Hints:
Number of strands: 15
Shape: globular
CATH superfamily of the largest domain: P-loop containing nucleotide triphosphate hydrolases
Number of domains: 3
Helix content: 25-40%
Amino acid sequence: MDDINTAADEESLSRMKNKMKGVIENFIAEEKAAGLSREMRTKIVSELLDDVLGLGPLEELLRQDDISEIMVNGPNDIYVEKGGKITLTDTHFTAESQLRTVIDRILAPIGRRVDESSPLVDARLKDGSRVNIVIPPLSLIGPTITIRKFGDEKLGMQDLIQFGSIEQRMIDFAGICVKLRKNIIISGGTGSGKTTLLNMVSSFIPDDERIVTIEDSAELKLRQRHVITLESKPPNIEGKGAITIQRLVINSLRMRPDRIIIGECRGGEALDMLQAMNTGHDGSLSTAHANSPLDAISRLMTMVIMAGTELPGKAIVEQIASAIQIVIQTSRFSDGSRKITHITEVIGIENGNVQLRDLFRFKQEGLNNSGKVIGSFHAEGHLPTFFDDIAIHGLKLSKGIFNKD
């Protein structure tokens, strides 16, 4: 199994899989597989290959494109999310030992571990899917695995229009913001599509720029060629050797980046990000876990305080107001749909608080008979304060898209 876990590349794993498939098929043929149909024999071969070379019963779920999330609650219960709805599957592990083996196979290729002294870990699959693992004593129901699938299909902004997640004028403005090197925070709750949207907004970055991405678990799939991907490192079994997001942000400033993209700000690295944005590294992007643009700003303030520098509140407000220009809010609705609910500009400071102004909003008007969200996108009637910069930089954007609907 160690050879399997450390397979050098996809080609060697494919050869191993084909060889194993032949062995299994020959065994079934020699045993004559009395009473088994061709379909049943194929199913047996597939399940054995998944168990020996893959992630066991999870492999079949990972192959289903309509599944967006897989939730393993101990060996017996596996839930999936399809179309925004969570359902219990008939799939299960044969025993907790099989589940533990699958966990080891997930972690081995990326050099991470989970045990009683370190009972939770974030990881990723080879396709970029995000994985969270929690084992006893933290989990009282046995080992749990949560997989946020990140498919090979690279969605574009036009796909978001077809999904009803955004309008063309909002896309045009987002592209202008990136080209003008505005610093952007993408805000949203759990499962709202922050990382997907970050990938899409990043697609507007010119191909000739050097981009440094920083993440806990590498998920971003940028289309540009000159991309340096940095990933944080947890401590080893002795509790040493950790490389934090904050340290990577500081180091990235020495890597001559044109843009810095932080997968998600969660702690003290927010201060280093803001300082980078305020010292010439404009055009940077990040995400924040928040339910509104105002909440995102409040979260940033809290995270700066977590850095432990004891900056006065006034200085923190000034850092945020000068560093961030745009907040894009994405939300997940009751029908499972995801929509850009706000594009908001940071316009300054008033009475000691960061001032925001909505440029575009989505307004929900109700639900149809099928439970689908009904609503529409609206411009709020405000020009961005930097509108004149668009023409100065040789770009074009109609002033009319900001007229109040």
